[in-house]
């Protein structure tokens, strides 16, 4: 991944997570048509039409490009930090429930973290479809699996859902009953030139126990089984090689189910970024917190 050279002032905000003084940023009182990209890696983050005046002294946006911004609990333990999903650069914080916009969301961003691009130049910064690859993974509760991949550079979109079964348009309650044949899974879209499928799979096997049949921790049932659903046949060879390699680390055999994806059903909205919104009391906090820390360090 190519990163832009940063000034000392930009490094202080983007890398050291400092905050620029209010009402001093280049884009605080700035309203032109175009897009805003990450100053460090050029990933498109916000549309100009999502920008509004919140009166807070920093650029404010009530929407993002899908998958471009990640949310984490801030180191102060109370606020929600937002970062570029590709390079991990600090952007600012997100606040909800303030009633400042129709979407009731304020992505409060440092001007030093972003760069404005006029509309007529925006196209060259957008994702090219041929650079993206998709894989479907299930390793227990999808809240936890989503939380893991929110920390992997190169992953541009994560969608929780249901797959691998027979019931059409299943609900969470139906899947939880264990009679649909579906597993709780996440659809992961990633940039192939930044992170490989092999690396995605290595993180996946690190984040759960692939040797326990239909079980992860206290979650028991076929809906919690370990499963990899490939989206093209070219992925199969990589999947087999990774399973063979990581299998040497376990005394019990890997029982991960591997098969082609037939249909993915997106989960209900309240499941999206569940861990980030409920990390203080989330089940995933106790199940995978140590693994989250290790994965963050490795990536």
UniProtKB/TrEMBL annotation:
EC number: 1.8.4.11
Active site (catalytic residues): 141
Pfam families linked: PMSR, SelR
Oxidoreductase in keyword set: yes
SUPFAM superfamilies: Mss4-like, Peptide methionine sulfoxide reductase
Keywords (A to Z) from UniProt: Multifunctional enzyme, Oxidoreductase
Annotated catalysed reactions: [thioredoxin]-disulfide + L-methionine + H2O = L-methionine (S)-S-oxide + [thioredoxin]-dithiol; L-methionyl-[protein] + [thioredoxin]-disulfide + H2O = L-methionyl-(S)-S-oxide-[protein] + [thioredoxin]-dithiol; L-methionyl-[protein] + [thioredoxin]-disulfide + H2O = L-methionyl-(R)-S-oxide-[protein] + [thioredoxin]-dithiol
Keyword Oxidoreductase part of the UniProt annotation: yes
Molecular function, one GO term: peptide-methionine (R)-S-oxide reductase activity
Ranges for domain MsrB: 1-119
Family label: Belongs to the MsrA Met sulfoxide reductase family.
PANTHER family: PEPTIDE METHIONINE SULFOXIDE REDUCTASE (PTHR43774), PEPTIDE METHIONINE SULFOXIDE REDUCTASE MSRA 2 (PTHR43774:SF1)
Role: Has an important function as a repair enzyme for proteins that have been inactivated by oxidation. Catalyzes the reversible oxidation-reduction of methionine sulfoxide in proteins to methionine.
HAMAP family given in the database record: MsrA (MF_01401)
Name of the protein in its database record: Peptide methionine sulfoxide reductase MsrA
Annotated organism of origin: candidate division WS6 bacterium GW2011_GWF2_39_15
């Amino acid at each position: 991944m190519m990163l832009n050279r940063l000034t000392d002032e930009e490094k202080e905000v983007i890398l050291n997570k400092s905050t620029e003084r209010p009402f001093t940023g280049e884009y605080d009182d700035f309203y032109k048509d175009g897009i805003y990209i990450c100053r460090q890696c050029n990933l498109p983050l916000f549309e100009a039409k999502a920008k509004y005046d919140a009166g807070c002294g920093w650029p404010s946006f009530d929407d993002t490009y899908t998958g471009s911004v990640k949310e984490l609990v801030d180191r102060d333990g109370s606020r929600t930090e937002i970062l570029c999903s590709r390079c991990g650069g600090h952007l600012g914080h997100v606040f909800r429930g303030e009633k400042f916009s129709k979407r009731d969301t304020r992505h409060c961003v440092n001007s030093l973290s972003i760069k404005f691009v006029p509309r007529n130049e925006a196209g060259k910064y957008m994702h090219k479809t041929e650079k993206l690859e998709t894989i479907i993974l299930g390793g227990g509760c999808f809240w936890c699996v989503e939380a893991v991949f929110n920390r992997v550079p190169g992953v541009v979109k994560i969608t929780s859902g249901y797959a691998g079964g027979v019931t059409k348009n299943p609900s969470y309650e139906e899947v939880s009953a264990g009679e649909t044949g579906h597993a709780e899974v996440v659809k992961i879209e990633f940039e192939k030139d930044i992170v490989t499928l092999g690396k995605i799979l290595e993180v996946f096997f690190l984040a759960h126990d692939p040797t326990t049949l239909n079980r992860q921790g206290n979650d028991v049932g076929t809906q919690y089984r370990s499963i990899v659903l490939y989206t093209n046949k070219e992925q199969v060879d990589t999947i087999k090689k990774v399973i063979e390699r990581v299998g040497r680390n376990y005394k019990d055999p890997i029982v991960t189910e591997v098969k082609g994806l037939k249909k993915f059903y997106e989960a209900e909205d309240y499941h999206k970024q569940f861990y980030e919104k409920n990390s203080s009391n989330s089940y995933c906090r106790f199940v995978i917190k140590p693994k989250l820390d290790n994965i963050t360090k490795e990536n």
